[in-house]
User: Fold this.
Amino acid sequence: MARAALENYQLWIYIFLVLSCQVRGLSVGPEDFKKGDLLKIKVNKLTSTKTHLPFSYYSLPYCNPENSPYEFTMREPTKCNVVCRIILNAKTAKGLKEKIDDEYMVNMDLDSLPLVVPVTSFEESSSIGYRHGFHVGIKGQYAGSNVDMHFIINHLAFTVKFRKDLATDLSRIVGFEVTPYSIKHEYEGEWNDKSTRLTTCDQEGRTISEFEGPQKVEDGKEIIFTYDVDFQESDVKLWFSIVNSLLIVLLLSGKVAMIMWSTLYREISKHNQLEMTQEEAGWKLLQGDVFRPPISNSDLLCVFVGTGVELFGMVLVTVIFAALGFLSPSNRKGGLELITMLFLWVFMGIFGGYSSARLYKMFKGTEWKKIALKTAFMFPVTLFAIFFALNALISGEKSSGAVSTGTMFALLLLWFGVSVPLVFIGSYIGFKKEKNNKQDQDQDPVEISKVGRKIPKQSWYMNPAFAILIGGILPFGVIFNHLFFVLTSIWLHQFYNNVFGFLFIIFPILILTCAEITIMFCYFQLRHGDYIWWWRSYLTSGSSGLYLFFYSAFYFFTKLEIEKPVSVALYFGSMFIASFAFFMVTGTIGFCACFWFTKLIHSSIKLK
Assistant:
């Protein structure tokens, strides 16, 4: 008894140690360039941390050439390149002022790296952070005046950081920064397109900051857009510092598994060698009850498991594709990542339908069409209802982030025309699958008794609500260290390199953690004579989704300054969908792990 208590104590210590582990992401590999290779900057949408309603780059009167407005050659610095000249009218001036008031920022990228603006921390003057994109403009006052004026950013000083291979003379871009300026350009004579010489743009070393007079935004004002390009060799290495944290997580996980395995091995060996006595108790006495179907909501559990399998497959394949470089961050302008996830979710319907039908059949269900219908519609209806409501609100704001009617129709066509039939096909295959042998993996390893065993009174720490809430802390702790940076990257548009690379590392650790914590709690529950484990195994790791939503609410009130009701609805609607999906994925992982563990241990003991 003392030895078993010591092992349980050690197990809890290791569980809380895992929470201290940190994991960092890796990045998709960029391209190599020769000196003189043409580089093109891609312009993305306008975004704001106040409204979170995106708009097209060309919704403002920016230069709109056939190709990229900003082009230059590798490792060849240039100064004062003229992009174009525009003259504002009342409408375009009003649009610029509105975007400046709402603090909209321009986003660009070069070779899959987003454009960032170095920002010095107020607390630590030596600490430099990075913010995605530069502001459309700024508001300020002339000296001696109390009137607020709007000034546009019309000169960009790009800095491209690179690493050079001395053997091949090839260069790899490792950083893309910009210093934005507002300057009222002047020129000699009449305007003659890009060949006009600007008197405010000295190419002999004089810096932009020495010039006086920002470019004001008013009706009839002339605005000239220019840019500089500088190159800096850097020693930054595109690698990832994850080995130490990953090793710690794996070592701690191995220790947890070792304790569990040694305890179980001893118990199973003792049970198989000796006859059952009155003193023997615990999980070994539950063979006739442990696979008894849930008392309530068994259909809903089947649907949740099937939907979780569908979402798990979508995330797994997407993360693998992104880590291999098929989903480059430079393609985010077209939403390639979201499109890939959408199509994967649709085609994973066959696995979701199969999983829910197999579990439903195990629960002695007979109406497989009913469970297939619920699997095909429960999560998608919730998702589309929130999505349609948010899209209607965004459309009312005339944002470019709104989905068009044609796209809506295409989404419904994918849902009803592809996803629903695949779910039904998977359900039919799963339900009609016959038992191939006596050890079919989807069958109960032991016969269920006709009368259920009475469950003994449980200790306070085995209370379902307490165990479920405690069980969700560990999976949430796996993502907690980087959740702040991910949310900051999404909602504050600050630099965080390659979220999908981070997921490639963190996702396997999350799977391992969900499985281990659920197996541990499942073992403790069965050891105390409680065989009602179906829903609890799902909710134990799935409760991490609740922590995710609570943290997103905390982040909203402490870090964001959103004022518009539409933007508030967009934030909480999006985070609810993400938290709900996270709940289903982690819950399904925990359920499958506990199901496998329970079958394994009860298949290993001799029937008495």
Summary: The first strand starts at residue 32 and ends at 33. The chain has a mean pLDDT of 79. The CA atoms of residues 204 and 295 lie 82 Å apart.
